[in-house]
Amino acid sequence: MKRILSKTLMAMMIAAGLAMLVFGPRPRASGSSARVHIQYWEKWTGLEADQMKQIVDAFNDTVGKDKGIWVDFTSMSQIDRKTLISTAAGVPPDVAGLWDTQVLQFASMNALEPLDDYARQYGMTRDKYKPVYYDGCQYHGKLYAIPSTVWCIAMLWNKAIFQERSAELRAAGLDPDQPPKTIAELDKYAAAIDTWERDASGRHLVRTGFIPLEPGTATNVMGYWFGAQIADPTGTKLFLNSPKMIATYNWIRGYSERIGKDQLAEFRSGFSSGATGLFDTPQNPFLVGWNAIEAQGPWISAFIEKYDPKFDRWHVPADQLKRESDFQSIHEGMTLGDVENILGAGDSPSHGAATPPQVSPDTQLLHWAAGIKDIYIGFVDGKVTVMEAKLLPAEMRKKYCQWGAAPFPSAIPGVNNVTWAGMDVWVVPSTSKHKKEAFEFIAFASRQAEIEKLSSLHYNLSPLKDETREYTENHPNPYVDVYEALASSPNARGLPRVVNWPQIFDELTQAAERSYLLQGSTVDILNQTQERAQKELNKALDVPENSNLSLGEAAQ
Amino acid sequence: MKRDIQQFGKGMAFLSPWLVGFFVFTLAPIGLSFYFSLTKFDLLEPPKFVGAHNYLDLLNDKLFWKATGNTFYYTLMALPAGLLVSLGLALLLNVEMPGRAIWRTIVFMPSLVPVVSSAMIWMWLLNPRLGLINGILEALHIPRSPWLSDPQWAMPTLAMMSLWGVGNAVVIYLAGLQDVPQELYEAAELDGASTIGRIWHVTIPLLSPVIFFNLIMAIIGALQVFEVPYIMTNGGPVHMTYFLSMYLYDNAFVYLQMGYASAMAWIMLLFVLMMTGVAFLFSGRLVHYQGK
Questions:
Q1: What's the N-to-C CA distance of chain B in angstroms?
Q2: A138 and A181, same structural domain?
Q3: How far is CA B223 from the centre of its chain?
Q4: Residue A110: its chain B contacts at CB < 8 A?
Q5: Is A263 on the interface with B (CB under 8 A)?
Q6: How far, in Å, are B182, B185, B187, B195, B261 from residue B192 at the CA level?
Q7: Same domain, B109 and B182
Q8: H or E element at residue A45
């Protein structure tokens, strides 16, 4: 009996295992099975992923349909690691959305497919792009990535705080209606805006005009504004202790010396809510007024919209603010009387500055001014059929901004519009099985209409050299023109051309932290950083220790 | 004999799912990681044999020694604090009192919260400007502390935070306490032993195998600490909370130096073996097993 039971159990287990293998779950591709399926992995999640999905859907319904390609879109975290591991395993995605940080790192490991031939075929050449982004996708003269949404760094200032501290600013000989234009001026503005409070335990800094380490996005490339070069163009030699880098870090250190190391540490500690700080929270230090000036990317508009929409609606008349919010309650089928009860009397669409929606000739279109938006509502037979709240052109929205954006001042006289330009990119892993189809999709997503739509939705910039008027007017960041001009500037600079930037980045982070904590002299800190970082770079480049080869030769 | 072989075969067949998993997903990676530790390997290119180069590099790597120092510093703080607090709580919760089950649940509950969630909550509690802890300190006219952003405070703060998860150890101690014979307490009481005396002379010796088990688990846990500092400080400020496990992770998955990271993993294993070895060395004298 026991034997029978044992054998039956074993047979059942084997049968169950076989059944799983034969009938078990399979990765199921959506869409048409007749098409070539390409896998597209993207780092964007949430709303940003949804917006990219719209472009994927548009591809699948148009070009994909004509050319027999279907894109399967997957949004995921830690995409860099997953892409690399799957590439090594020979089962990579066909398109991966990475960061610029990985382009050189992955290209040097032969993890990426060169895209020059495909790009030429689709006319995606250097002259179509802002040079800083296109060049950032190249390694050893070959193109390994295509920029998707891009960004750069500008200086933001809080106009309300400038007004509040206008007496102090004027006393220091500064104009409270203008942002600083030189580094020396920036330091003066910062000192005049710094606000202190005293209690039983002493004097505490409660607001700063500016501190170099907040929010920290550009701290490690701050040398760019001082004319410093972090690495040579071949990516074999670092210059972390050059005189210009020393000047940069002395400037960082100068803030600790002026404010007081402990006071600054106490103040900065309020920003710390873990490794990422308070950046993506309602307590964003710029939005709550702890920092009056910051070096920031165009994405600040996303945080304003999410956490403090009033920042973009400064001095908007109260009735118009109310109208913007009341618009949410309008729905199709309402009568003109119902709408006017909520929004007040409308006027002619010609009074609006935003482009009115296209409507049929039998539609009566009316307009309501609502601060930074124009509301258009169309009626057919006296009932609502169309309703849209459209942003005013960017230039007109600026007057309602409690903040302004301008080029971050350069320390080198005569060198203007300096910025650090970063980007998200699309790559094709070297072991992808559908490279041609993958690029077909990248080319579609890179078309002007698609890339501008995506860039606007992501509160970023377009990598293309020329922008359409519609894009600049309707971009959610009213200062998009400032950012676009900076990104197009000859003084826009991308990441240093080294294959192990993540490692060098960490070294520079430590150097900045040590400088601000006054742990040793700037020269000593940077000498140590240079020594360690160059050793790491040599290791990454396989330069033998005590080699007689010059570093440049070894890298070739 | 034939029957034995048959029995063995059947046994192996039933064991095979686990055995295959163990060999493929545990033993083989362990062996491979040792091989990789002797190579330069970036995942994409085939591993290049470099002998003991990675190990020699580690000896000269200041950051490695800084991370090692931090790991041991944390272990030295978190280990005794964790053992004392969990044992103390277990002794308290073993006393007959109203609502004892509720108290036990409250103590155990935090260890059920996922590490990431509790780290996020603690980040807000410890926020020097907005956090509840500094708010309370301020109300009591005690100066605010910068906690995680101060080089001197960051590590003790993490060690203090580790006490949040002592619930598991408390449950194990409580189980152990149920095995202590009541008659020994009664005898000690008749001999005039005070409460402290009873704990010291009866409870601790009889609980020593459980304490020893918790000690070994705590050593391993402390030497491998990763998630909490990774989320809360990312190793900062100025590498003051940068642990060995974080340096290993950065080398493997950020800098893509798998060979170097593998060498580090083996050194880390060596540290765990050394510390548990020392613990075992002293266990003969200090750990008392009932019935022996």
A1: 38
A2: no
A3: 6
A4: 44-45
A5: no
A6: 15, 10, 9, 10, 58
A7: yes
A8: none
Please state, rounded to an integer, the average pLDDT across all residues of chain B. Answer: 91
Q: Which residues of A touch B231 (CB under 8 A)?
A: 274-275
Q: State ipTM.
A: 0.81
Length of chain B: 292
pTM of the model: 0.86
CA distance B246 to chain A (A): 13
Q: What dihedral do alpha carbons A130, A135, A136, A138 form, nearest 10°?
A: 140
Using the beta-carbon criterion (under 8 Å), do A283 and B231 form an inter-chain contact?
no
Q: How far apart are CA A146 and CA A148, in angstroms?
A: 6
Partners of residue A403 on adjacent β-strands: A158
Range(s) of the domain holding residue A373: 318-397
Distance of residue A250 Cα from the nearest chain B Cα, in angstroms: 18
Instruction: Give the model confidence (pLDDT) of B16-73 as tens digits.
Output: 999 999 999 999 999 999 999 999 998 888 899 999 999 999 999 999 999 999 999 9
Phi then psi dihedrals of residue B98, to 5 deg: -65, 140
Q: Are residues A358 and A389 in the same domain?
A: yes
Nearest partner of A88 among B275, B252, B79, judged by Cα: B252
- A466: closest CA among A100, A55, A152, A127? A127
Q: Which two tokens stand for residue B171?
A: 């449950």
Taking only the tens place, the pLDDT of each residue in B101-133 is 999 999 999 999 998 899 888 888 888 777 899
Is residue B291 one of the residues assigned to a domain?
no
A157 pairs with which residues across the strands? A293, A404
Alpha helices in A43-143 (DSSP H): 46-61, 63-67, 79-89, 101-108, 116-121, 131-136
Residue position matching structure tokens 């591993």: B47
List the alpha helices (DSSP H) in A155-290.
159-164, 166-171, 183-193, 243-259, 261-269
Residues found in chain A: 556
**Separation of alpha carbons A136 and A463, rounded Å:** 11
Q: How many CA atoms lie within 13 A of B183 on its CB side?
A: 0
Chain B contacts to A (CB-CB under 8 A): 10, 13-14, 40, 42-45, 62-63, 119-120, 123-124, 127-130, 141, 143-144, 146-151, 230-234, 236-239, 250, 253-257
Query: Rounded distance, CA B165 to CA B218, Å?
Result: 11
- Low-confidence stretches of chain A (pLDDT < 70) are 25-33, 271-277, 545-556
> What CATH number corresponds to the domain at position B265?
1.10.3720.10
Q: Identify all chain A residues contacting B230, using CB atoms and an 8 Å cutoff.
A: 275
Total domains in the fold of chain B: 2
pLDDT digits (tens, 9 = 90+) for A348-396: 999 999 989 999 999 999 999 999 999 999 999 999 999 999 999 999 9
Q: How far apart are CA A233 and CA A141, in angstroms?
A: 12
Counting beta carbons within 10 angstroms of the beta carbon of residue A226, is it exposed (0 to 12), middle (13 to 18) or buried (19 or more)? buried
- Say which of B44, B119, B236 has its CB closest to residue A109: B44
Name A493's bridge partners. A420
Distance separating alpha carbons of residues A281 and B129, to the nearest angstrom: 14
Range of the domain at B240: 52-286
Helix, strand and coil in chain A, % to nearest 5: 45, 20, 35
- Looking at the complex, report in whole angstroms how far the Cα of residue B39 sits from the nearest Cα belonging to chain A: 13
Task: Say if residue A349 is in the same domain as residue A244.
Answer: no
Q: Residue A225 has which token pair?
A: 């504004």
* Strands (DSSP E) found in A263-418: 293-296, 364-370, 373-380, 383-391, 403-406
CB burial of residue A224 (10 Å; 0-12, 13-18, 19+): buried
Output the CA angle A541-A546-A551, nearest 5 degrees. 40
Looking at residue A354, the DSSP 8-state letter turns out to be S
